[in-house]
Amino acid sequence: MIRLIKRPEPSRVMVYLAPVIALVLTLLAGLLLFFLLGVPVGEALYAFFVEPISTRYGLAELGVKAAPLILIGAALSLGFRAQVWNIGAEGQLVAGAITGGAVALWFYEVEAWYVLPLMMLAGIAGGMAWASIPALLKTRFNASEILTSLMLTYIAGLLLSLLVHGALRDPDGFNFPESRLFHAAATLPIVLDGTRLHIGFPIAIMFVATLWILLSRTVLGFELQVMGAAPRAGRFAGFRESSVIWFCLLLGGGAAGLAGLFEVAGPIGQLIPVVSPGYGFTAIIVAFLGRLHPVGVLFAGLVMALSYLGGESAQITMNLPKAVTGVFQGLLLFFLLATDVLILYRFGWGRRSLAATHT
Amino acid sequence: MSETVILTLLTIITAATPLVFAAIGELITEKSGVLNLGVEGMMLVGAVSSFIVVSVTGVDVLGVLAGVLAGMLLSLVFSVLCLTLQASQVATGLALTLFGIGLSALAGQSMIGVAYEGLPKLSIPILSELPVVGQLLFSHDILVYVSFALVAAVAWFLYRTRAGLVLRAVGDSHDAAHALGYNVVAIRYLATVFGGACSGLAGAYLSMSYSPMWVENMTAGRGWIALALVVFASWRPWRLLFGAYLFGSISILQLHGQAIGLDVPSQLMSMLPYIATILVLVLISRDRGKIRRNAPACIGKAFHPTT
After folding, report:
1. pLDDT score recorded for residue B1
2. What are phi and psi of A273, to 5 degrees?
3. Residue B306: what pLDDT?
4. Distance between CA atoms of residues B78 and B72, nearest Å
5. Is B242 contained in some domain?
6. Residue B139, in any domain of the structure
7. Range of the domain at B55
8. Residue A13 and residue A131: Cα distance in Å, rounded?
9. B103 touches chain A (CB under 8 A)
10. Per the domain annotation, does B127 fall within a domain?
11. How is B20-34 classified by DSSP, letter by letter?
12. How confident is the model at residue B187 (pLDDT cuts 50, 70, 90)?
């Protein structure tokens, strides 16, 4: 019988190999899924993984989709390391879209350079404010940040719907639930001509670099890792648990808020009732796929962005339901978590191995 | 008592029942020391499975069974990952929810707009003809009665049987239970799969009775509210029943708000259950000592018999 045997120390090889194995397994499961759906497998794979990035425009779209995922995923990975489970990034994204978008609409008549920076600040502040609620409730009242941040996601979605149906609705928009279109001064500059790739992508990469330095070169980074791995040791060392919780939630909220602003000031260009196809949730998968490491998150963000593009492309060319994307993303996370076992354990054969007999 | 009041009370019962199912299942799972955050995903897959089966076969029982089975299968995946492969329970639960949302949307593609008349009401002879009380208590579909029976059964099992005592022991100290010779992993498997079955049943109730149709994401966060309810109830079955009905009452306010002349935007009314969940969590969790006394001590902790 196959049983798990604990390795004397974590395998360095498997740390890098496990996500690759998970990706391959997901691909195989995808093949099976397409086969079961009665779809020509080769064609589906081409439509899903190759066609979307076979053009310059397609590659740029990959960056457009990856930008919010990398931004949020990198911030969340720091929190997850410290065992702070902010799973309401989607709500913080919406909050940032609301505050940033409101600034754009407030300065509707103004075509000045300072409008966009103000919008970004407002977006970050909005996301942070939304994330500060679970942080306060966790540190003051011990309420699970998992549940509160998630409940706040539903509330943020309803709030956005309320605003685009009311206060922020386009006065000349025939009662459609949409805001006015943002002016040129309130939309993100494009970094690649003829595409939709905006400055959010380079900003996301800079953010990753900053977090990497923070994590590996500062006391704060060390503190975060200790609080996640050994909270008791951390407390003895005088690290404050509540400040770690505040830091992680504000960082995640700020990043998500900025990502939300990027969506409304970039590809969308106005406030609409739904501003994100679940980037805040997918970013959770991105964080795990990237091994909770900022640089890993960079690659993971691109992979997950491809799953969105592939879903759209397969929907257009092969009439496959868009929900396939969600299934792929969920499967990938399952396989990741399953292959992670290889880091700490190895498989052994036989009834009971030496390592297991001491109990 | 006027007709409207009776109708309101009836909608409270239908709104509370899926919460009772999902939360009582999760209660058993958590009592064994396992935190499964995938309730929302299991409910969705349960809902879509039962709806597909009932619209294809036309047999209600098969529909309900399909929902239960779907929930069990998903919770089995969770169990293999967390209990055998030692994956993080929080991460795996989230994965289960994300996967469930995708899978149910994919499976339900062709079911959107399909009509189904809903589970039949099971009127108990004579009793259901009593004025007011008859309609209120004795003319529901069978799952409503099942939900009450289930709470009673769980309460009895946990505190009046030996097996219940073992389950609680596993949740409070897996090392001690293991030392006494109990198979911790096997017991947790059973408890988790029971939770999955209940979540699937909750989903089946949603798509077969609460609103007999399939809509993407039709659970609308009820799985997460059920998780909060378990904390609210301090892991006690009868308090959980009370909590579910409290939440049922809050969530139907949005339906009846307009009817009684409240001039509040519908979105604000729809926020109520989520706001209430947060408030309730805060009120309960602020008493750290009480949480520590009531929560299973090993909740969320991995157990590997050889370490």
Report:
1. 53
2. -60, -30
3. 61
4. 10
5. yes
6. no
7. 3-114+144-294
8. 36
9. yes
10. no
11. HHHHHHHHHHHHTT-
12. very high
Q: Specify the residue for token string 């964080």.
A: A287
Would you list the DSSP string of A226-251? HHHH-HHHHHHTT--HHHHHHHHHHH
| A212's tokens | 């990497």
Tokens representing B111 are: 């079911």
Per the CB < 8 A criterion, the answer to whether A132 and A249 are in contact is: yes
Distance CA A115, CA B30 (A): 50
Q: Low-confidence residues of chain A, pLDDT below 50?
A: 353-359
pLDDT in tens, A158-177: 999 999 998 888 888 888 88
Name residues 73-132 of chain A within 8 A of B (Cβ).
85, 87
Domains of chain A by start residue, with CATH: 66-310 (1.10.3470)
The reported pTM is 0.89
Please name the amino acid found at residue A313.
S
Which CATH number goes with the domain that contains B80? 1.10.3470
Distances (CA, A) of B149 to A33, B11, B154, B155, B237: 39, 20, 9, 10, 11
For an interface test with B, give the residue of A1, A81, A94, A142 to mutate (most B CBs within 10 A).
A142
Distance CA B159, CA B143 (A): 24
Residue B258: its H or E element: none
pLDDT at A116: 93
Is the Cβ pair B91, A323 closer than 8 Å?
Answer: no
Report the DSSP pairing between strands A3-6 and A345-348: antiparallel
Mean pLDDT lowest among B32-46, B118-132, B216-230: B118-132
Give the pair of three-digit tokens for residue A196. 């939709």
pLDDT tens-place string over residues B30-73: 999 999 999 999 999 999 999 999 999 988 899 999 999 999 99
Tell whether A319 lies on the interface with B, counting CB pairs under 8 A.
no
Instruction: Collect all residues of chain A within an 8 Å Cβ-Cβ radius of residue B278.
Output: 137, 143, 147-148, 151-152
* B186 in any annotated domain: yes
Question: What is d(CA B299, CA B304) in angstroms, rounded to the nearest whole number?
Answer: 14
Distance CA B257, CA A60 (A): 48
This model of the complex carries an ipTM of: 0.88
Give the 3-state secondary structure of residue A119.
helix
- Contact between A49 and A314 (Cβ < 8 Å): no
Residues with Cβ within 8 Å of residue A119, at least 6 apart in sequence: A100, A101, A103, A104, A186, A261, A265
- Structural domain tally of chain B? 1
Per-residue pLDDT of A86-97, as tens digits, reads 999 999 999 999
